[in-house]
Amino acid sequence: MEPLRVGMLGLGTVGGGVARLLSGEGERIARRAGRPIQLTTIVVRDPKRPRAIAPPPGTRLTDDPRAVLDNPELDVVVEVAGGIEPARGWMMAALRNGKDVVTANKALLAEHGADLMAEAGRTGRALAFEASVGGGVPVIHALTVALTANRVDALAAILNGTCNSILTEMTESGRSYRDALALAQAQGFAEADPTLDVDGTDTAHKLAILAWLAFDHRIGPASIPRRGIDTLDELDLRFAAELGYAVKLLAWAERREGTVAPRVAPTLVKRGTPLAEIRGPFNAIRIVGDAVGEVVLTGQGAGASPTASAVVGDLIDVATGRARLTTRFLASPPSAVPSRTASAQVVDAAIQDPRRRHYLRFGILDQPGVLGRIALILGQHGISIASVIQHDPGEKLPEDSGEVVVPLVVMTHLARESALERALEQIDRLDCVRAPSLQLPVLD
Amino acid sequence: MEPLRVGMLGLGTVGGGVARLLSGEGERIARRAGRPIQLTTIVVRDPKRPRAIAPPPGTRLTDDPRAVLDNPELDVVVEVAGGIEPARGWMMAALRNGKDVVTANKALLAEHGADLMAEAGRTGRALAFEASVGGGVPVIHALTVALTANRVDALAAILNGTCNSILTEMTESGRSYRDALALAQAQGFAEADPTLDVDGTDTAHKLAILAWLAFDHRIGPASIPRRGIDTLDELDLRFAAELGYAVKLLAWAERREGTVAPRVAPTLVKRGTPLAEIRGPFNAIRIVGDAVGEVVLTGQGAGASPTASAVVGDLIDVATGRARLTTRFLASPPSAVPSRTASAQVVDAAIQDPRRRHYLRFGILDQPGVLGRIALILGQHGISIASVIQHDPGEKLPEDSGEVVVPLVVMTHLARESALERALEQIDRLDCVRAPSLQLPVLD
C-alpha cells in the first residue's frame, strides 16, 4: 500500500522523539496505520550541524521549509518547531497546499487555533494536535472524540510538569521555591529560563485549547486570569498539608448558567482526590461531563517520548482517515450548527463569582484580639470560618522586618470571591495586619 | 442532512440511559455527529409492560428483533440486551445485513469478540464497544486510537466498581467482607446476586477485552487465572494499610520476553499511587506504553448515565465514519500485517513467573521461634523478607479453633511466585503453622 509521506518542521526534543519512534517502530506503526508512515524530509536551521541523534536513514535534512510545504510528494506536515511565526505561516501554507497537519505547538494553537482550524475546514484537510496539551495523555482525543456525547461542565487540570515537580519537592522536602526550582533545573525538569512555566503562561495556553474544545468558545490565553507558583511560600504548602490539602497549579473552568470563567492559579486540592495525588513531572486532567460524571486522565505531560507518542498517534489517525473526520466537526462554525447548547459565554471570573472555599493567610502582629477582629470583618461580609491555624511566634513570616509578625491561616466555608475581596481590603487596613494578605482558591 | 437511524436491542439500565441521552440532548449530539441521531425502534421482551421511563416520542417498541435486524431503514444496531445468546446471533445478523453495531456487552465480546470483529471486517461495518469496559472511561478509544503509536508493555486496572466499593468500605470502616457487601447491596452498588462481580468473573471478561487490544492476542476469559474478593479478610486490609498499601481487585497483564500472563487477583497497591487512591464505585486503568510511559484513566465504571455516554460516543463515531476506520484496523487478521512485534504469546502466570513482592499471612501458634523457622524456609528458597508484622495474641484469626493462633505477616522483597509456592508448601507443613497460608501479589 502507498506509504503516508511525512515532512517535519523542526528536529528538537519532540522532533527527535518522533523520528526515533517512526524509524525504530516503523513496522508496528505501519500495521496500526494500515500503511507505512515514511518521514522523508526534515527542515532544520542548519542541516550541517552535527547531531546527537542521526536522522533516520533515507531522510533528507534541509534548511528550506519550501522543500516540505511545496513538495507535492508529501501528504502530511508535522510542525514541531514551536513559536508563533514562522510556524503559523508554514501551517497555513501546508493546509492550502492540500497537506494534513499535525502539530505540538500549544502557543500557536492557543493564539491562532481558530484561524488554522477554519483553514483546515476550507481545504478539507486534518489539523491534529493531541501533543499540544498533556504530552502523551490523550486529553484532546477524549474531548473531541471519546467523550463527545457529553456537555462538559467543568475542567480542572495540572498541565505543567515543571510546576508540579517544584510543588511536589517543596511539599515533600520543605524546600523553598527557589531551592526547589534550582533542583528541578539540575534534574532537567525546568528550563534555564523557567518564566513561561512558573508564571502560568504555559498552563494558560493549554487551558485556552482545552476550554475551546470543552466549552466551544475561543478565548485568547492573554485574557485568562493567571497566577503562577513563583510567588508561593513553602509556609503555605505546609499549612495546606496541615489542613489536609495539597497545593497544585491548576487550570480550571466551570460552566455556570451559560458562562465559563477559565483561570490559572495555585489551588488547594483535597488530599486523597486524584489531582492532589499527582506527584512530580506528571499532568492530570479532570473532566466533568453531564453524562459521564468525573473522568480523570493522567500521565507524563512532556518529554520527547511521551510527546512523540501523541504526534505519531495523530499521524496514524491521519493515515486511517479518522483525523480529517474529527477536523471536519471541529472546523464547523458554531453558526452553521443546529444548536448552541454546548457553547458557553466566556466571562471574567469576577462576573461568574462562584461560591467556593478559600485559604487565607494573614501576617499579623503577635498581640491578643487580632483573630477576633479579622473574624468579625469576615463575618460582616457573610464569610464564615471553617478552621484556623495560629502557630507559635517562633514561626516568623519571610516579610518580617523587626516586628514580630506571625502567620494566621483561615480556611473559609463556601464564600463568593467578590465578598472575600471586599473583606480582605478592609482587613489589610487593620493596624495589626501586615498587608498584603494571601488568598488561594480551594478545589474540594 | 440524513439522520443516522438507530435500532436498539434492550431497554434496561443502559438502554434507558441511551434513550434519555439521545432524546434529551439530541441537538447537541447532532452537532457533534454532523447529523441527527434518531432512535426509531427498540426491541424489548414485553412492549406493553408499564415503564418507569417512557421511550422517547416517535420510538416504536416491539418484541420482534427482526424489526431491527431486518429493517432496511436502520443504519446502526445498539445491543444493550446483555448475555451471550441471542445477543451473539443478533449482532452477527445485524453485521451481515450491513448495519454498524454498537455494544456494551463485555461477556459476549470476551467470548466471541474475534468472530464478531472478523464479521465486521468482512462486511466493512463498524463494531464499536467503548461501553464494554470501564463504563464512561474512554479506555477502548485510548487503546485502539489515541495511544496506538505505543507497544503496550503493561496493564493494571480496577474494572469492577462493586468490588472497589466493598474494599473501600472494608478498609475505611474496618467492616467485614459480609457486612460491606450487605451495605453495598443496600446502596445499590452490588446486585442481589453479586457472584459474578465478587468472584472476579466480570473483571476477567473485561481484562480479556483489554488484553486483546493491548497485546493483540485473543484469550478466553475462562483461561484467565482469577481470584475474587469473596475470600478476603478485613485483617489483611488492615495489615496492608500498616505496610503502606491498599488492597484492590486488580486485572493485570505484563509483557515479558514476548509473553503475557493476564490474571485477576486481590493485590496490594502502594498508597499514593493512582490505583491505590481510587475509592468507591470507580474504575481506573493504568496503561504503560513504550513511548508514552504510564497513563492512568479513571471514572465511573458503570451506571446508566456513564455507560450511555460511551454508547452515544460510539454512535457519534459511527455517524462521522470514524468507527468503521477503527474497526478496519482491529479486524485485520494478524497474518495479513507486516509485523507481529506488537503481539504477545499468552502464557500461564506460572510460566511467565515474574519477580515481584508478595504479601504473606501465616496463622501461627503463639510460641517462640516460629518466625525464625518460617524465615529460614523462605531463605532456603531465595526469598528475602522486607518487613514483618507480628501482633499481640489478642488479635486472633477467624479460623481459630481453641488453640491460640495469631497472624504473622511478611512482606517479601522481589521473589518468583514459583519459588514462593514451593516455600509455602513447606511452611504449611510445619507443626506450628495452621495452613493454608495466604499469599497476595504486590504492585509497587
TrEMBL record, chains A, B:
<dbReference type="GO" id="GO:0004412">
    <property type="term" value="F:homoserine dehydrogenase activity"/>
</dbReference>
<dbReference type="GO" id="GO:0009088">
    <property type="term" value="P:threonine biosynthetic process"/>
</dbReference>
<feature type="active site" description="Proton donor">
    <location>
        <position position="206"/>
    </location>
</feature>
<dbReference type="Pfam" id="PF03447">
    <property type="entry name" value="NAD_binding_3"/>
</dbReference>
<dbReference type="GO" id="GO:0050661">
    <property type="term" value="F:NADP binding"/>
</dbReference>
<protein>
    <recommendedName>
        <fullName>Homoserine dehydrogenase</fullName>
        <ecNumber>1.1.1.3</ecNumber>
    </recommendedName>
</protein>
<keyword id="KW-0486">Methionine biosynthesis</keyword>
<comment type="pathway">
    <text>Amino-acid biosynthesis; L-methionine biosynthesis via de novo pathway; L-homoserine from L-aspartate: step 3/3.</text>
</comment>
<dbReference type="InterPro" id="IPR016204">
    <property type="entry name" value="HDH"/>
</dbReference>
<feature type="binding site">
    <location>
        <position position="106"/>
    </location>
    <ligand>
        <name>NADPH</name>
    </ligand>
</feature>
<keyword id="KW-0560">Oxidoreductase</keyword>
<keyword id="KW-0521">NADP</keyword>
<dbReference type="InterPro" id="IPR045865">
    <property type="entry name" value="ACT-like_dom_sf"/>
</dbReference>
<keyword id="KW-0028">Amino-acid biosynthesis</keyword>
<dbReference type="InterPro" id="IPR036291">
    <property type="entry name" value="NAD(P)-bd_dom_sf"/>
</dbReference>
<feature type="binding site">
    <location>
        <begin position="9"/>
        <end position="16"/>
    </location>
    <ligand>
        <name>NADP(+)</name>
    </ligand>
</feature>
<dbReference type="GO" id="GO:0009086">
    <property type="term" value="P:methionine biosynthetic process"/>
</dbReference>
<dbReference type="InterPro" id="IPR001342">
    <property type="entry name" value="HDH_cat"/>
</dbReference>
<dbReference type="InterPro" id="IPR005106">
    <property type="entry name" value="Asp/hSer_DH_NAD-bd"/>
</dbReference>
<dbReference type="InterPro" id="IPR002912">
    <property type="entry name" value="ACT_dom"/>
</dbReference>
<dbReference type="Pfam" id="PF00742">
    <property type="entry name" value="Homoserine_dh"/>
</dbReference>
<feature type="binding site">
    <location>
        <position position="191"/>
    </location>
    <ligand>
        <name>L-homoserine</name>
    </ligand>
</feature>
<dbReference type="Pfam" id="PF01842">
    <property type="entry name" value="ACT"/>
</dbReference>
<feature type="domain" description="ACT">
    <location>
        <begin position="359"/>
        <end position="444"/>
    </location>
</feature>
<keyword id="KW-0791">Threonine biosynthesis</keyword>
<comment type="pathway">
    <text>Amino-acid biosynthesis; L-threonine biosynthesis; L-threonine from L-aspartate: step 3/5.</text>
</comment>
<dbReference type="InterPro" id="IPR019811">
    <property type="entry name" value="HDH_CS"/>
</dbReference>
<comment type="similarity">
    <text>Belongs to the homoserine dehydrogenase family.</text>
</comment>
